[in-house]
Every structure is written in C-alpha cells, then in structure tokens.
Amino acid sequence: MRTEIYLFLFLLVYFFFVFFLRSYLLWKRTGINPLTFNKTDDAHGYNGKVFTFISLLELGVVSIYAFKNEWYQYLLPFWYLEHDYLKYMGWSLLFLSLILVWVAQSQMANSWRIGIDEVNKTKLVTNGLYAFSRNPIFLGVMIANIGLMLIIPNAFTLLIVSLSTVSINTQIRLEETFLKKVHGDTYMSYYQKTRRWF
Length: 198
What we know:
Elements: H1 3-30, H2 43-67, H3 84-108, H4 136-151, H5 155-193
Helix pairs in contact: 1-2, 1-3, 2-5, 3-4, 4-5
C-alpha cells in the first residue's frame, strides 16, 4: 500500500478516535452531546465554523494527495521541504498527537467538550497532563497539523497550520474567560501555576 493511502487512513482513524468515538462514549455515559458550538455568529459560534472548515480542508488535501496525485501540483508543494527525514518526523508527530489527545481526553473524562458548554457545569480537571499544560488537547492538535505539513509540505497544509493556530488561540481565550467566570478563584489559582501550553 502506498504511503499516500496510509496517510489518508491515519487521518480517518485520527478523526474517528478523537472526535466520533470519544463523542459517542461521552454521550453514551452521560446523555450529553459534547459538541457545544452554537450556530450563532458570535465568536464561539464563528470559531466552530472555522474548526469545521479546517477539518474539511485537511480531509480534502489528504484525499488529493492519496487519490488524485496528478492534482497535487495545484496545492503548491514546497519541493525544497520534501525530505525523508522530515516525513519521518511528521509521522512521529502524528502518532504523538494521537496518543497525547486520547490520553488528555481520557483524563478529562465527563468534562470533555468540543467548545464551551454553558448548560451543563463540568468539573475543573487539573491532574494528569493538565498539571503541566492547561490545553494538552489543543497542543496535540497543533502537533498533528505541524506533522501533516512535514509529510506533505505545501501551501494548503501551511494554511491549515496558520488557520488552526489563530483559531485555537482564539478558542483558548474564550474558554479561559468562561472558566474564570464559572470556577472563580479555583481556576485562577490553576491558571497562575500552570502554563497555557507546556
């Protein structure tokens, strides 16, 4: 099987485990839908649309790479970054990301959400990976996007990294404001002693 197909299958596995399976398990356990992005045009709702766009863009780029290689030139590849050692590094980052995100989601347990849940109050998780980083899941997603760009360096994977960096940092700040309001001094104490990234 070609490497291109492996990358496409890995992306499907990644999305399945960290989005679909994790969402299903939480819903089955609690009856709560973890997808909490609203459909309004406020910052939170808009950021949800950006996340969706980035995910679809990733799927589209990897699909072209895997199944329509003759179209790949239109993605404006950075040929000077196409080296085997960078591809190996990219694959390592993808696997690291999958492990990091899965473990961080597991440690968050019933508090895990995609977006901000203003209806169901969740427990503030500060143990495990969260003792070292306030955002290990977002960190894992950023690692995955960088890994993808190292495997297939082109203008569109660079766009994915750029958009996700802005979108994730926006989401983090929205969540920080929300958590300060909900958890008060408990969150502020955690905020002051634990770094945003690592």
